[in-house]
Design goal:
The chain has 537 residues and is an alpha+beta fold. The protein has 18 helices and 21 strands. The chain has a domain of 268 residues.
Length: 537
């Protein structure tokens, strides 16, 4: 079957998957993956490994995440899947009126004003307390050591560090941005590949988080430092907002596709977009080969999923439409009718009324975790709390100031969130964690991972090596340079506006670990578009 497949066949043997039976950590940075592996060698489990890896990523890949990130996780333990939503709420002083008084018609992308409460430190503490085996001090020790003793910068991180620094130098002039430059360009420039970087502020902050199980960040001296900096420079975030934050354990949501259950975090995450697309496709004739007709249907289903997600997804306490209604067969049948021979401009429907760093880890006890944490738009807000290394996300940018919008800004509310972990099961048994980072590419990457796995039956590495498409807006679709020309041309004939893009970062960066239910053998794939690495026991 695969030998004749025009999209997948050239990539099935490009790189071999990685195998292990004792444990595995897959992420974008070798040093971070090794930090996770060390935890399992010390007697920890996959959850300890994930926390260690996540903390290390704030050090060795600050271009994508930070101590001031948000985080989500799907945890398989004791034959059950658990969801963790550790995204933060809007500060109490962040109101529509406050933005209008400052002359804004939409929420800025950078600076103090789009910063919401960070959730990553709370995620580490919550995961450790509920499912970890080792003390948090031990788990964060590798990240502290990397920050204190220094690490050589990897090639792709160096590339995005340079891009971020160049962009920020053009944009940022205010005194509030100086700590970012002091932290990440102390010599006046971004580091070269292989250059040793130390981040003493990160080390100090991570040690305080480790020593207090996260309390220092939300209740103690770090909270005071965040509060004081925002008060000095006119930001909204206060210590009271940090004190009110708690990670939420949630029930994952899923759809069944071709016998596999595909799991996502419920809103406010955008994983629902992937499930909407899969639910639409499940009732359609989809080839196991990536022919033009199949790719066309995938794109159209994804567009419809995005249209609904962008309209309805927000803080679950404020959603006016239920997830159950959106994923109902009745609604999916209506959406399928919109997919024909020609590309459409997607619009949200009316469902029936009724109700980015990514890592994957697995151990030899059967525990598995799909974990993602991120600032936003690379380095995030451009705000770093002086001397702490706390680089803050800018998630508030996704709120709307339109009072009629489903995701309208309200104090204490969580916004539509782009970062999403994924998980696959079959017949009640874990297949494993997967994820694809990259803003609004993430649901599209999840869809392509699932289809390549379930329909084409590719191994994890081949899934990640295959060329990707990305719907951008209306009828515009971008494809990677190695995307087959004849499929791209066929999509054009169907009305798609197809563009080839050399921005490899825009097509996401994924990791996959599958477990064979019969043998327990782990099979991993890591991202060729990043400094991807798999560490095994």
């Amino acid at each position: 079957m695969l030998a004749q497949d025009p999209l997948y066949q050239p990539y099935t043997s490009k790189r071999m998957p990685t195998y292990s039976k004792n444990g595995m950590v897959a992420t974008t940075q070798p040093l971070a993956a090794e930090a996770g592996k060390q935890m399992m060698e010390k007697g920890g489990n996959a959850i300890d490994a994930a926390i260690a890896t996540a903390a290390a990523l704030t050090v060795v890949e600050p271009t994508s995440n930070g101590i001031g990130s948000d985080a989500f996780a799907l945890v398989w333990i004791n034959d059950k899947l658990h969801g963790l939503n550790s995204s933060g709420q809007a500060p109490q002083q962040m109101t529509r009126e406050a933005f209008k008084e400052q002359g804004y018609e939409s929420i800025p992308t950078h600076g103090l004003t789009p910063v919401t409460v960070p959730g990553a430190p709370g995620a580490w503490a919550s995961l450790s307390e509920r499912f970890g085996k080792l003390p948090l001090e031990d788990v964060l020790a590798p990240a502290i050591r990397l920050a204190e003793e220094g690490f050589p910068v990897s090639p792709i991180v160096s590339k995005y560090w340079k891009l971020g620094a160049a962009s920020f130098r053009k944009k940022f002039e205010g005194e509030e941005f100086k700590p970012w430059f002091d932290t990440f360009t102390p010599t006046g420039k971004a580091p070269e590949p292989g250059e040793i970087v130390t981040l003493p502020g990160h080390a100090s902050t991570l040690r305080k988080i480790a020593d207090t199980n996260g309390e220092a960040f939300y209740q103690g001296e770090l909270a005071d430092e965040i509060h004081d900096f925002f008060q000095t420079h006119g930001g909204f975030l206060q210590k009271e907002d940090l004190q009110q934050f708690k990670p939420e354990w949630v029930n994952p949501i899923s759809v069944n596709y071709q016998g596999y259950d595909v799991w996502e975090i419920p809103p406010n995450g955008q994983g629902l977009n992937t499930l909407l697309a899969l639910k639409t496709l499940d009732g359609m004739d989809i080839s196991k080969e990536a022919d033009p007709e199949t790719v066309h249907k995938q794109i159209e289903a994804m567009k419809l999923g995005f249209a609904d997600g962008m309209k309805y997804i927000t803080d679950p306490e404020h959603m006016k439409v239920s997830v159950e209604d959106l994923l109902s067969e009745q609604y999916a049948a209506e959406r399928r009718k919109l997919i024909g021979e020609e590309a459409i401009t997607p619009e949200a429907g009316e469902p029936p009324k009724g109700g980015t760093v990514y890592l994957a880890a697995a151990d030899n006890e059967g525990n598995m975790i799909s974990y993602i944490q991120s600032n936003y738009m690379g380095f995030g807000s451009g705000i770093v709390v002086p001397g702490t290394g706390i680089s803050l996300q800018n998630r508030g940018h996704d709120f709307s100031l339109d009072p009629e919008h489903h995701n309208v800004l309200e104090p204490g509310k969580k916004t539509y969130h782009t970062i999403i972990p994924g998980f696959l099961t079959k017949d009640g048994e874990a297949i494993g964690p997967f994820g694809v980072m990259g803003g609004y590419m993430q649901p599209q990457g999840h869809l392509q991972v699932v289809l390549a796995t379930v329909l084409a039956q590719l191994n994890p590495q081949s899934v990640l090596d295959a060329p990707r498409w990305r719907w951008v807006e209306e009828k515009t679709v971008e494809v990677e340079p190695n995307f087959p020309d004849h499929i791209a041309q066929a999509l054009v004939r169907k009305g798609h506006q197809v563009k080839k893009s050399v921005d490899e970062g825009g097509f996401g960066r994924g990791q996959i670990i599958w477990r064979d239910p019969k043998t327990g053998v782990l099979t991993g794939g890591t991202e060729p578009r990043a400094d991807g690495y798999i560490s095994v026991l």
